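Throughout our pipeline, every protein is held as a single compact record rather than as scattered files. The record that follows is passed on verbatim for readers who wish to inspect the format:
___
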Amino acid sequence: MIEIIIQHVTEFIGAGGYLAVFILMFLESTALPVPSESVMPFVGFLVNQKTFSLAGAIIFSTLGTICGSLLSYAVGRYGGQPFLERYGRYFLIRSEELVKTEKFFQKHGEKTIFISRFIPVIRHLISLPAGLSKMNLPKFSIYTILGGVIWNTFLAGLGFYLKQNWLIIENYTKFLDITVLVIIIGLIIIFIIKRKKYVYS
């Protein structure tokens, strides 16, 4: 599956240039399965080959990151909360929990957004609860851009120095992705069990 994604990613970037980089990183930040670990190392390789400039690669990738994140933020802020306030009880989500989420992002939003940019899976989704909690938009944007610039530059740098061997990065990211997914699934299961115990107690 990863090999197929990488093939499509490389072909798309080869045909679309900077615009393709923007689109792929935009999609990655809207909860779609476009891993930056498959995009940016190849972009870094193209920088090494002088097909792209480093500045152009970082600018367009980060623009994609922030634009996709802002879209997810808007969905959470203007669509998510009304939906959950009306139908949340059917998903065992109480209004008190929405208040707790809002307070959490008011207190820890900046570091949560920044750190999440480096965590597989989480970075795809974090903008939704940030919008849902009505996190301060300028702060959300600043920390998303900061985290995005660092992460995108790091991955592009790896691709730049690995050159034709940039694909070996996938060998080290798969384990991390799987580990994080297992942790998240475990937390979801625990949450559901606790919610059921609360409902039936």
